Amino acid sequence: MAVTRQQRWLYDRRCRQRGLLERHWCGLAIILLLVVLGAATQPTPTALAHDPHRRALPAADNIDAAIEVIRLGFAAGTAREVLLGRNDLFGDSLAAGSATGRPIVLTRRDVLDRRTAAELERLGAEQVTILGGTDAIGAPVEAELIARGYAVRRIGGATRIQTAVGVARHYHPDAAGVPVVIARAAGDGTQAFADAVGGSALAHHLAAPVVLTPSQDLHDDVAAYLVDTGAREVIVAGGTAAVSAGVEHELRALGITVRRAAGRTRTGTAVEQDQRRGFAVAADARSVLLIDGYDPDAWVSGFAAGAWAASQKVAIVLADGADLDRDTSDFLADAPDTDLVCAAHVVVSACVAAERAMHLPAFATTGGVVLRLPSPAVDVIGFHESNHDGARQLEVVSTGAPTVTLPSRGRGTGSRSAADVVSHPDLAVRAPVTGRVLRAGPTCCTAAITTTSR
What we know:
The protein is of the alpha/beta class. Helix content is 30%, strand content 23%.
C-alpha cells in the first residue's frame, strides 16, 4: 500500500483530529486497524512459537566468509575441482559463475592461507583452478599447491574481461545451447559487482558462461567469444546504467536474442534473478541467503554461494545496509517454512527484518483467531476499545515491537478489543489473519479489517 504526499497530509490531519497515537508518529506511518468480533467457539490454544530457521554466518575476514558459505553446500569430499580467487580483489572472481557446480575459495596474493588449505583438503579437491594471472595470485601460491599434490590450472588474462572470457571458453566452448550471462566489468565502488552477486547463482543454475563488458560498448573479446561459440541468447545482469542499451543493440546486431534480469535497484535485480531461477517469492525456495548488497565485501558471499544456491534451491537477496527495501521485503513476505541464512557483514537489524518479513509473527490472539504483524517494520502497536459491540478482548503476544494501551473512550468494550499497528509507509502492508473476513476497507490512512472465527 503506497502512501502519497496527499495521503500523508490527510493522515497527519486525521491524527491531530482523532488523537489516535502520539503526534510524533503522525505522517511517518500507516495504520492497520484490526477488530475481532465475538466468536461462537471457545478460545482454543494456538501454536504461536515458530522455529525461526535463522542462521548468521560468522567470519573474521573474507577467507572465512567464503568458507562458511561453501560448507553449507558442500559436504566433505564432494568437490573434485575447486576454484581459487584472491581474497581482497573481486575482479577475476567475477567469472566464477562460469564454472558450473564448482565452489570457489579465497587466499592471499602470495601465501596459501592455512584455512584455505584445510578447506581444499576437506572438500577432497584434486584440481585447483586459479583465477587470474600472477599479479592476482602469485607464483608462490601455485608452487605450494603443486607441492601439496594438486593438479593446478591457471586461467588469467590482461584484465578481468579477458580472464572471464578465458574461463568461459574453458568451461563452455560451445554456448549454442545455453544463455550467456553478461555483467558490467567495472563501476564505482560496489556498483562493479552488485548485479553479479545474484548473477553468479543464475549462471550456475543455467549452466551458463559469465562474461564481462564495459558499460557502454561490447568488448571485442566478448563479441568474438559469442560468435565463436555460437551463442544465441544473452541475459544481461542489471539495467541500462550497468550495461547500456548500446551494448544490447550490438548484441542484437550479432543475431543474438537479448533479455535483461534487472530491477529498479540492485536489490530488485537480485530478486529478478531469483525469479529467473523459478522463485516467484521466497516461499518457493528452500533457503534464502541475505547479503548486504552495499557492503564492499558482499561479493565474497555472493560468488561463494553460486553453486550451493543453484543446486539446493537457495534464493539470494540483498539488504540495503541496516534495512530491507520494498523489493526484498515483498519477495521475502510470508515464507515461514523457508530457512534464512544471513551472510557475513549483514547488519543484525537487517537479518531481524528479514526474519520478520518471512514469518510475520503473531502479536495477538482471541477465540482461535491469530493476528499477525502486517509489515516487517512496525513502529508501535496501540491497543484500544473497539466501537463494535461484541468485539473480543485480544490476548497480547510479545513480538519485540513497542505496545501501548490507549485510555478508555467510554465505549464499553474491552481495553484491548482493537489494535492500531503503526507501520513504515514505504513497505507493503498485509493482513495475514485466520478466520473469515467480514469487512475490509481502506481510508486515507487506515485499512480496517473485521474478522470472525465463526
